[in-house]
Specification:
With about 170 residues, this protein is mainly alpha-helical. It is built from 7 helices and 2 strands; from the N terminus they run αααββαααα. The chain folds into 2 domains: about 90 residues, Rna Polymerase Sigma Factor, Chain: A (Orthogonal Bundle), CATH 1.10.1740; about 70 residues, Orthogonal Bundle (Arc Repressor Mutant, subunit A), CATH 1.10.10. The longest helix has 23 residues. Keywords: Sigma factor, Transcription, Transcription regulation.
């Protein structure tokens, strides 16, 4: 395919590529940029296009891959586009340091509250917490399944009461 034929085919495809670009970007200006970038890549790599294959599919693939690459690049940078008149890229990551002290206090209080539970309630509750099913707990403790459910319910209720300071 000659360069002139290729350019003519590209110009005919812009009308079919534009809706796909809008679907990907959800914005007309970004869609125009994506379309332009796709056509530039296709033109610069025209020698890679095998004549007789589907040009439309080739262009759709270029557009999709360009969109994904641009999206991943933006996510990696951790930036967002400021839509004010000056259009600067602003770094959106904050320099906030978390020392997890509050989480450590809460975890210690939770563990203390669990330890203070009566063994009758604590054992089924911890077994359930570790992933045992109700019927497995009932079998191991040799008690009815209804009793297992009741004891876990009571344990939750007591823990909820003891840990009410952590309610949101």
């Amino acid at each position: 395919m000659t360069t002139v034929d290729f350019n003519y085919s590209l110009s005919n495809m812009t009308k079919t590529l534009k809706p796909f670009a809008i679907k990907l970007t959800k914005d007309h200006d970004d869609a125009n940029d994506l379309l332009q970038e796709t056509l530039m890549k296709a033109y610069n790599n025209r020698e890679k296009f095998a004549e007789g294959t589907n040009l439309k599919a080739w262009l759709y693939t270029i557009m999709k891959n360009t969109f994904i690459t641009n999206y991943q690049r933006m996510v990696r940078r951790g930036t967002f586009i400021d839509t004010t008149d000056n259009l600067h890229f602003i770094n959106s990551t904050s320099t906030q340091i978390e020392n997890r002290a509050a989480g450590n206090f809460a975890l210690r209080d939770i563990n203390t509250s669990i330890e203070k539970l009566d063994d009758v309630y604590k054992i089924p509750f911890m077994m359930y917490f570790r992933g045992f099913k109700y019927h497995e707990i009932a079998d191991r403790l040799e008690i009815p399944i209804g009793t297992v459910k009741n004891r876990i319910h009571i344990a939750r209720k007591q823990l909820k009461e003891k840990l009410r300071t952590y309610r949101a």
